[in-house]
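Dear support,

We are seeing what looks like truncated structure output for some complexes. This example has four components. We would appreciate it if you could run it in full and send us the complete token output so we can diff it against ours.
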Amino acid sequence: MKTLQNIDRRIIYLLVFLALAVPMLQPIGLPFGINESSQKVYDLVDALKPGDVLVLSFDYSPSGQAQLDPQARAVMKHAYSKEGVKIINVAFWPSGPLFADKFLGEMEGTHDKVYGEDYVSLGYVAGAETAISAFGKDMHQAYPRDRHGNSIGDIPMMRDIKSAADVDLMISFGTGTPGVPEHVRQIVTVYGTPFAVCMNSVSVAGNIPYYNAGQMKGYLNGLRGAAEYEMMMKEPGSATASMDSLSFSHLTVIIFILLGNIAYFADPDRKKK
Amino acid sequence: MKSQGLMIAITFVFALIIIIDAFFAIDFISAASTEIQNWGTIIASLALALAAVNLIRIHSRRIRLRRGEWYNSVALLTVMFVQTAIGLVNRSTGEVYNFGFNNIMTPLGATMYALLAFWIASAAYRAFTARSIDSAILLVAATVVMLGNAPIGESIWSAFPSIKTWIMDVPNMAAQRGIMIGGGIGAIALGLRILMGIERGHLGGSDE
Amino acid sequence: MKTGVVFQFVSLLIVCIGIIYYIQKARNGTTYVIRKIAGLEAIEEAVGRATEMGRLVHFSPGIAGLDGVTAAQTFAGLETLGMVAKLVARYGARLFVSIRVAIVLPLAEEIVRQAYMAEGAIEAYEPECVQYLSSQQFAYAAAVMGIIQREKAAASILLGGFWAESLMVAEAGFHAGAIQIAGSANITQVPFFVAACDYVLIGEELYAAGAIASGNPIKLGSIAGQDIAKLYAIILLVIGILGATAGSNFLVDLMGK
Amino acid sequence: MIGTWLAAIGTLGLMSFAIKENPFYRFVEHVYVGIGAAHSVVMGWESLQTKAFTPIAESGDYIKLIPLLVGLLLYARFFKGKIWLSRYPMSILVGIGVGLTIKGTIGAQIVNQIRATLVPLTSINNIIIVLGVLSVLMFFYFTRKNTNALFNTSSRIGRYIMMIAFGALFGNAVMGRMSLMIGRVQFLLGEWLGLLG
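Here is the complete output from our reference environment:
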């Protein structure tokens, strides 16, 4: 039993790596259902009508990219396919605008939205919670220019959009601070803007009270949430393809916890408390 | 003008403008609140380069004195200067800048924390034990949530996702809400201590 | 007054007045009793055990710095360090304090030195027992793991702001067979501490522990004031829930005003 | 092509830490810190253009010179004896931050959370929620005697309910961390080696 507990770390690492890599090379395609919270995000986007204003806020950095990129890709594709919906891309994390640019580049030619008329990229403004509050209060003062240097007053679609009160749905792609609490404090509580979140898994448990209280209308949970969105769009992508790896890596961790506990309780020398 | 009293007064006035604006509809306060929030974003923009200046100081000293792995410091500063120059000329929308962002910054940032997958597995095996009621409850709940999250859980027993949802939405929600209310009160108390001039960590200041 | 925020405003006033009142009272000499915090009481046992075994007591005040919102956690950690160092000096155990943020180093050194002095054991104080390891998160964690394993630490006390490195350090301590006492206000890291450590301070318990260890009257007063604010929340909850159960939503409506 | 190779070398460099801390890892880490700092500078500069230079130059909004000049004082901390100057911009930032926290927290995290908990005790779930919120609040009630039976019992319940919540957090953290590694493995096997269909 002692040897079981003293097994080299690197063997554990190797097993995890295999649990992730093998199912990618030999997929099984285990089925999975759609969580209600994810369905709500989809329904909110789907219910947008021509003329409605959608804000997409990119609040993550490269370290969250593995979970957030597939979510953002799927949600953006859905949003840009909605006719007549006006979309504002913003960012309160410095890497955000570059991710938004990347997806817009990928989607070029797949939608009929015109820059300035139907969508706009406002880019990044520093200041975290302060910037979020300033954006909610007066977008024209918070963003005198868009990401491409155009004066915001010259952008046709922004003429009637002044504050968060004019927004019909706000979605944040977020992995930390500033993130959900900051948006809820400075936007949702003040303007009552409907708000949904695509977030990394670690953040989910702590933000559930906002969901229960209706401050957050729906959420996607990490890579699994992205896969569910892909399924709802009926366009399985990289997230769906990784679900088998997710399954086997979880199984590995659960088995490790079991083995570790067996070894621990079978060890006669374990310190008595 | 080194007076800490003046600094605390500044902090107090700025906070007060924002708080009053939140509860009362007074035109000039509202305008002032909008203006100072935009000031805040300007100062915060300037603060973004502080880390870079700090790095220049630390690493140029290390290179000068040939201390430790000074060649890594050369690499750090070179990459920093080159990418900054590209960004200032090419802007962050430019192709060259995005090459660095997409092929260096993004993969490295993503990998840095990806290693946690290994560490959590190793800790799960070597350290996470149910030796008290607390840790036993935790590990059972964690296992159920994992089985509810991973598609394989549904294949084993179709009820796992709904049990997971219940754990998340009922006991987890209740506990997190209790923590959130307590934490919110704590945050207000910290704010008050700052405004009262008791907590002055940000005014204490120290080199670097 | 804007619409929909009247109740919020009144609540804010109640909370603020409660907190300010108790801080002022504490400043004028009133002392407050704080409930037992198991993790804090276990420190003496842990230090005693380390002395018997002749092995190391490891302490980390977390990886947060001295500014920003997370600074409060570092300060709470350093306040408990004062208590730990006194016990170590009293028992004649061996201490190692690992530091990640350079400006925390002189503070921690001073705290440990003062503790040895207060115990009249300054000749036993070794300056090298407080060390700056690395400013990089994972390099710091790797260094701490190395030390805990090499020295087979008998106790590992982790109190402060911890992030992703928490489970690496806790795993090392567990494997070395150390008594582990850990706490952080970063709730996301608490689960790993619960799974791998013997005593855990959850969230705000860290600040309470710091206040107890330092005896700082303003901190204690603030905690008492925050309790009054919690009592206000509890009262609202009880009244509102009883009302809702009896079929009346008066408080729900009132709170929306 | 060059980009993918660069990314792959960097990825493997950082992953080598899992085997052992090594010089190559430290090199890649330094490169990461360097490019990360550069990104902050560039985005800070662009943010400044949007927020200060444009309004001043184009709309004559000269009042924005104030935060610009005060903000520059942040750099006084790098000059011996002038550190105190850098505390002025800090006092402004802290003031705005405290104001936003106080006014935002009372509604979003306190009043609205309490309000959402005012449910009738007519279902098991509601009872658990009410009991959970109350007992956790009582767990964090510190100024009381250790002999208070009501508090002792309720805070023990609070502790157990928190353990379930921490279990949920733990379970989700596992998913999050595995997802991060999945992203890297997908990159290595797919984009780099071209092994995935």
